[in-house]
Structures are given as structure tokens and as C-alpha cells.
Amino acid sequence: DFAINFQVQWLIENYETAEGVSLPRSTLYSHYQQHCQQHNIEPVNAASFGKLIRSVFIGLRTRRLGTRGNSKYHYYGIRVKPGSSLARLNDIGTGAGIISGSESSTHVYLQAIPNTIITAFVSNPARRWPDSTTSAPAPESSAAPSRPHRPPKEPKPVTPLVLEVSVERSSKPVVSASADNSHQTPVNSAAPEVLLSYLGDSALILPTVWPEVPDNLNVNETQKLFSKFTSLYRSHYDEIVTALGNLQFNSVELIWQQFWQRPDNCDNKDDVMTISQLQALTTSSADESSESTIPAIADWIIQTDYTMYNAIISSLLLPNLLRPIPQNLTQQIRNFAKNINQWMTNALVGYDDEFVVLKVAAVGAFSHTLRRYTSLNHLSSAARAVLQNQQQIQQMINDLNRVDFKNVQEQASWVCQCDDEVVEQIEQSFKLLLQESNPFDKWGVWCEQILELCLTDDDVRSATQFFFKWGFYSSLVMRDLTLRSASSFGSFHLIRLLYDEYIFYLIEHRVAKATGKTPLQVLGEARSMRTRSLVDVNTEHN
User: Fold this and answer.
1) Taking the complete model, does pTM exceed 0.85, yes or no?
2) Which of 93, 326, 438, 493 is 20 to 30 Å from 254 at the Cα level?
3) How many helices (DSSP H) and strands (DSSP E) are in the chain?
């Protein structure tokens, strides 16, 4: 899930493990809530957040520290990174000493001991922060006892599950100076001109993908009305594409409302269609034997929606799916995707129920695809830091060589019934991929080759079976890595998420191509069928 990956990224970027360090649990949760508020993300509760941080920093311990009657729970063995902006929000120095908000008023300090950074950026494990090897003396206080503090017992090593590193927030980039700068994600780039440079050319969309108008309408009055509608509908989409091409995402709500809810008493009726005309055009005939062409018109509208939504994603908003894009643009797209279902529902108040179901299913597929593709883009950017770091890759190879693949195959064979030679071929090819000089440049091709090897046809059932088997095998491998406490478990977890999402992306495109439809249409039709089924069930119960 994008929100979870985004939160894990934030934890890795702003916190690190260190010996003899405590951080108030409430302070860390407060940091998290501020982060969610800044990025318009719904925060999880404190208990769920505690589970999340423990899944990232394995072995993290909790202690109750402070004066009697004023003690608080602390996470022991973690601190804010000295280079993080969060260090300025609290009285947290670059040494190990931590001062909570309530403790600072009573001058209660925790004894600092020499720091040893257990982990750093995935991209540069050899990096050392300033003051990382020096201890910070405890500040003097008149309220503090005169006897020296005893340092706490040395904690057990804490191994973080490092899932992602922000390239831009590190003073030393992951890629070398000779690498293409386009590979680096400008996480903090929010200037409109910068964001616009990541979009496709909106002027090319309508001339290249606008569907042909059907010529099988045999009723003169309907033909005349439909010809007017198709012209207006193209202008309507021109407004939408122009707005999105200028990052005016919220304008889409008004554009939809003005088009579908035009009052009957409006002026300039020659240039617009009123709500009564549109309702008549999109309402199904009550007489099933009628030769009315209205259902065909509604069908053309839905087909046009799928075509345009698909083009808006692939040619405008995400023209290069795996190219890193700014965090601000990702969030704008996801906020847009979150709202469009309700916007369309509001715009179609008063229309035929069947037409509304089809329209909402199409925009629902649009919304779902935007969220999935931005998640895939985010995972690709996160994986870059791992797959371009030779030390991290070598650790992954070492851990992978310890996995008992024979046992994995024995467990999976009776469930998946796959060819042993094919499974071994996938295993060996993945190991060879990791040994490449730059596996990040080849992982997408590897996924495509695996799909060609295992999926001989584009049948939906075959694709479903392959994805099930892929997930089952990879879960067994991850289980083996977990039981062996593999140091690179976090890296493998990230790579698995990326591969799962990209293989699903490849499968849906293959199935869509085989059926002559867009991926959005395949998804949207499935959604509309589920909606109809739910409506039928509710009708029977009533």
C-alpha cells in the first residue's frame, strides 16, 4: 500500500538506531501525525504505529523513563537522525542524549554514552554523520543529582528493515556524478514549472486517441442530437485535459458539474445541452423490444471515457511510469484520484441508474489505476537505492544463497504443480540479475522475460493462476529469509512489492490487448458487474 510504504520511507529517512539512546514514544507519534497532516494522509492510531515502527526497526525495546510520577514510555535504541529536519522540532542534539518535552521543564536528562551508528543509508553504509563517534555530555542542572549517572545496559543490536532511502535528502547522492540526473527523484521539488516538466503533451491526446463517432444511428432526431453531443463532448474533454495538463486537478469537479447539470433555462442553448436533453440521450428504453438507439449512445459515451482516461494516465499524468517523479506531484495525483468518484456521482444526480453505474465504474477504474500506478512509481524509486548499491546487493546475494530452495519447491509443488526446471530457471536468473553491474536498469526486462516464460497465452484464468503461483512461491522464500533473520530482508521485501506490482501491470496489459480493450475497461467492466450484483442482491432482500 502506498501510504504504508510512504510512512516506512519517512521513518527510514528521519530515524536511525543508536546505542544508549531513548526517544519518547509520544514525541515520535507526534512527529508522525505532523508528517501525515503535511501530506494529507490519514494517520493510523498509536498502537498501529507502534507495530509499524517495530516492523521497520526489529528488536526495538520500550522503557519507562523519567522521575517518579512523571515518567513516560520511551523507545530505547532509536534516535532522530542528526541531518533530519525533525531534530529542530525538539531539544535533540547530535549526541545520544534525549530530552522529552515534559522532562526539559524539570531538567531531567538521560546519560549519554558513546554512539555507534548501527545503520545508515542503504545507499552508503560507510557514511558517518558528524559527531557520530563522540559522546554528548549530560548538561549540568541545579535540579539534577550530584552523583554521576550510570549508563544503561547496552541493548541488543537493533536491525532495521531498510526499505527506502530518499536520494535528495542525502548530501551524497546514491548515483555517481557521471550518472544521468534524471534518475534522481527531486522529492522536494514543488515549483509548478518543475512539476509540469514531468507531464506529457496534453495537446496531442485528443487528435490521436479520440474515438470515431458511430454512424449506425437511423433516427433523424436522435442523429441530430447525438452529432451535437459528440462535438460538445470533445470540447468537454478538451477542458479536462487542459486543466490536468496545467495541474488544475480541482477544476475537474466544476467541469463535470457544469456539463452534466446544465439547467434547462440557461442561455445560449445552441452551444450547450441542457440536463433534460442529456437525460433523454442517456436513458435506456423501458421497452426492451424497442429499436431505440439510446443504449448505443450511452455505450459510446462509456467507451470514450475509458479511452480518454487511459490516455490521460499513459500520455499525460504518467507518461513514463518508472521515471521518478516529485513527491508533491505524486500526492496531487493521489488526492485527485481519491476525490473523482464522489465528483462524478454528484455530477450525475438525476440520470438513469444504469448510465450512472457505467459512468461511475469507469471513473472508479480511472481512480484505482492512478493510485496503483503512482504506488508502482514510488516503489521503483525506492528500489533504485537498493539495486544501485553494490554492498547491499552483495548482502542480498549472500542471504539468498542460504535459502533452502529445494525445501521451498517441495512445499509449493503439491499446491502449484509447476515444472521444477522452470522454477530453478527463475531462481538462477534472479541470482544472475543481482550479479549484474547495475541490476536496476534490467529488472523490468527480467520481469517481462519471466512472464514470457511462464505465461504461454493471454487467457484471464491462466494469468490469474500464474499470479497466484508467483505470490505463493515468493511468500515461501520470504518466510525462509525471515526464519534465518536475513540482514537484507527489508531489501527483499521492497523488491518483492515492486515485482508483484509490475508483473500485475504487465499481465493486465496483456489481457487487455488480447481482448481488444484498454486495461481500464477490463477493470471497469468488472467493477460494474460487481455493482450490478450487489444491487440485485439488495433488491431480492428487500
Assistant:
1) no
2) 326
3) 19, 5
